Give the backbone structure.
Amino acid sequence: MCGIIGYVGHRQAVPVLLKGLKALEYRGYDSSGVALHTGASLSIVKRAGRLANLEKAIEQSNPTGCLGIGHTRWATHGVATDLNAHPFLSTYGKFAVVHNGIIANYLSLAASLRERGVNLTTDTDSEVVAHLIDHYYTGDVLSAVCRAARELKGSFALGVISVYEPNVLYGVRKDSPLVVGAGVNENAICSDISGISDFCGRLYAMQNGEIARVSTQGISLYDFYGKSRSFDLSPQEKEENSEREENEDYMHCEIRQTPLALLSGYESFPEKEAETVLSKPYDEILLVGCGSAYHAGLVFKGAMRELADTQVREEIASEYLTQKGGEKRNALVVAVSQSGETADTLLAVEKAKRQGATVLSVCNVRASSLVRLSDLAIITRCGRERAVAATKSYVAQVHSLLLLCLKYAEIKGKISKNKLNELKGEIAALPEKAERVIEEESYLSKVALAAKDAEAVFFLGRGQDCYAAKEGSLKLKEISYLFSEAYPSGELKHGTLALMEKGVYGVVIATDPALAEKNAATVAEITCRGASAIVVASEGIQPDMRADYVITVPDTHPLFSPVLTAIVLQEFAYYVAKARGCDVDRPRNLAKSVTVE
Ligand code: M6R
């Protein structure tokens, strides 16, 4: 993960870099740092911990210069200390480097650098890059960067400045995202547009194997052999749904934006293009994703089974990568990802493509690697999601996948016209129902307060509710650090029931009227062992449940209910985390975009 930024222009670089790093902090926040060309030399300030620590350090040293690079870190190699923070300098301070990704061959590079007398001072994989460029420098910085890039294995987006060129920065990309932006008398590179969007009106998303040479005069692009490449800068797209109340957490704001995201997703669903892709015969439909995106895929699987009479093979992307053989050559791969930059998902898609698969993705970032790899991309129009926890993006993924399922059922003649219209009507009503769920949040905050010191929280459900339970559990553990697991309700009695006792909470999701009695039995099994029960039920179901708390969501088709229950579970997690004093937007050990395997 990590976020990198570089600036060259007519302004002082420090405020620009710090503002950009603030926008990139969602990519990691274990440490941060900047390197500047001060005129005569390169100067570095870096600190472990949140960006505020770096800001304090900068106030004291007050470095100046109009060329600089910056970094915000999610630690992979080396603990989060000042020393291991980026940027890294080469031995005599001639080159400074920031890196996002993993240098897979850093141990062998470090060994050969040591043999040549280089003193490596950190535990990171990234430091070798600065020394390697220095090693290859014979008077031309671009050549040295090219030579080093060719030698690096793994994934990397790099920002490089050197003492030799006071007006030039380099961006290098292989398997980690990097954009180049053009402003007026100022240009920049960044892991994503959020860090530079306020001054770069035109952008280019770099491709693998490219090096950008960026100065105030302009931007040129090269391959790793220094051969010039042509490229087009495109105008920046307007960011949707970005308003936030003062001091409001991003997560809370993003949950509130869900109804709007659903509305935009419904209106922009690419009917014709989806029809073209789905009409072809496939040997199998394979769904890949990670975390919440994978959970959204489970809901798709459930809907496809019920509505389109079609089995979807679903795989956690990293697990799919470990499997050998058994590939169907003519598969439709449905890849789900908010960022479109998740390494495991991208690698899974590449693997499937090598087998001849067609790729349909559901993604929130148009200018992402996943969208580029896809035959068709359905863009979830949620606007940027900054909090680490997926909220509106998860709901929008589920929503787009449900529309996709209906389209598939229609094309394959699995559904009558009347039924199709009825279900489309249900989907069209979801934004308004989502709004109603959000209006009820004050009750949820009280329930959350009661559960804040739970010893463990088990999320339970059957069918689609079980898939929703998995997502609810992930959300809670991710931001509140409470222990939590999700199970199909029916599995409870096969082992997990042994853990039910006072202090433990069971969250039972019960939206399907056909399963009301079974769900009531689950609640009874929990409460009679002394554990507390929270039920999330549809309005129409008033089961005789002896639950401690009952939260209702508007009725919808049971296959679509995860759209609504997800909002309840997200708010529950949010309020539990707040009550526990957690940083909801930046939970420990995590980052928004997981660009390493
Ligand atoms: O960007 P992606 O959707 O590919 O990210 C996948 C997961 O890393 C992500 O959904 C993660 O599980 C969320 N932080 C959970 O809230």
